[in-house]
Amino acid sequence: MPDERDPLPNPEVPLEPDVPAAPVVPLSAADVADDAEAPAPVGPGQGYQIKLPVFEGPLDLLLFLIKKKKIEIHDIPISIITREYLVYLQDRSLINIDREAEFLLMAAILIYLKSQTLLPREKVADPDVEFRQRNFDHLLPIERIQAVAHILRDKEEEQSQVWTRSTLNAPLPDEDLDLVEVSLFDLAESFFALMKRKQKESFRMVKGKEISLAEKTEEIVATLKARGVLDFLDYLWEQESLEDALVAFFCLLELIKARIVMAVQEQLFNTIKVWLRKEAPPEEAA
Amino acid sequence: MTDNLKSVVEALIFISVEPLTIDRIKEALPDDAEAEIEEALRQLIEDYANGPQAIRITPSVGGYVFATKPEYDAPVRALLQIERRKKLSGQALETLSAIAYHQPVTQAEIAAIRGVDSSHSLHTLLENKLIKIAGRKEAAGRPLLYRTTDKFLAYFGLGAIEDLPSAEELKKLMEEGNG
To answer: Domain tally for chain A?
Structure first.
């Protein structure tokens, strides 16, 4: 006959939080007798009986009820069970090893279950969600980006009506102006027309002066830098002699080919204008 | 110490066709305290903004430049024979906003923000030189990274990217808008 002890709540060492005054009517073996899976109800003589405010009966039944979520594991003070079990063992002269080993196994399972509910759970997240969080957590929500887009729209509207003096010198992006980048034939045609006019005007055809292409190129680039924009025909017309004009023409062709300058005709039949390309590296222009 | 510092700063900005940075103004005026130059500039900008002049001082690409006020748009365009500028599409603007706030940023991140494919907008923006490729991300697939350009700042009349409201200010703005 096992020694039946009353649970002795030890007020000096409350290892477990106070058991709430259980509204639950203590479950006992009889309550689950009709459940086929339930361990066979055992009489008080079979083994150590646990006595708690929420439960009275053998440990395997308690474990079963916890697994079935019929008893909240938080309400089970394991330290009390353990302490009393040790007292029970010490008082016994003979120990049934099999039965006590079983008890230890179940107690271990109980401790394991309780520890799991107490420790923070490791999240097993959806890998997709995890990926998105890792990479895109810092991104602003689309509403805020759309608000920025509105701000930019207003600024664009205002800025499109604001003009600086650099507008005079720099060509605007092609799509904003009806500009046609001219071909070599347009340039040549303009040049020959000019040459004819110049021929009639001046008889000082050959001066015998050597004009270096490099010098002329430098001169053109310097003029472009100073004035920003050149009228192609006017510039050639300004040249002292036909020879100068001819050299200047070839230099311009070279500069256009090297994409250091850009020749643009504003509209059909209008004058051809020449700009320095802004993105041209300066060493090329030298 | 320069007398009429404000007028001096005005002269320096006037003579500059390209935006004049505050650093260059400081270089030109080594005898003046930086704080005073900044204050003079601030007052000057205010004077022009609120004054009867047809021009104002506008921030542009890290500096300041004289520009006509918006109300003189029509006559200026008539003089320069310039058509009204084309506007960016809403899609392109949204993409540009996403880039401005997250740069350097990959196309995948832009798509994650907008929830739609943005390759067409990216192409348009690259073509207009409002954004540029700024290397590759050291991540799987080494995707291209995008950044806004100086032209982006000039296009929207911004002195620096910081002239846009910060992420926090934006949040506040939106809360005010909703409440």
So the answer is: 2
- Mean pLDDT estimate for chain A: 69
Residues in chain B with CB shorter than 8 Å from the CB of A166 are 17-18, 65
pLDDT digits (tens, 9 = 90+) for B36-86: 999 999 999 999 999 999 999 988 877 898 999 988 988 988 888 777 777
Residue A128 lies in a domain: no
Do both A110 and A180 map to the same domain?
A: no
How many Cβ contacts (< 8 angstroms) between chains A and B?
122
Nearest to B113 by CA among A134, A153, A136: A136
State which residues form the domain around A280: 170-285
What pLDDT, on the 0 to 100 scale, is given for residue B1? 58
Q: What is the pLDDT of residues B133-157, one digit of tens each?
A: 888 888 777 888 999 998 898 888 8
Q: Which pTM value belongs to this model?
A: 0.45
Chain A touched by B30 (CB under 8 Å)? no
A225 at B interface, C-beta within 8 A: no
Is residue B45 within 8 angstroms of chain A, CB to CB?
A: no
Which candidate, B19, B68, B78, places its Cα nearest to that of A162? B68
**Overall average pLDDT of the A32-40 stretch:** 49
A106 is a domain residue: yes
Residues of chain B with CATH 1.10.10.10: 5-79, 90-178
Structure tokens at B96: 């540009």
Question: CATH for B5-79, among 1.20.1250.20, 3.30.43.10, 3.30.420.40, 1.10.10.10?
Answer: 1.10.10.10
A159 close to B (CB below 8 A): yes
For B22, the 3-state DSSP assignment is helix
Indicate the fold that domain B90-178 takes in CATH. Arc Repressor Mutant, subunit A (1.10.10)
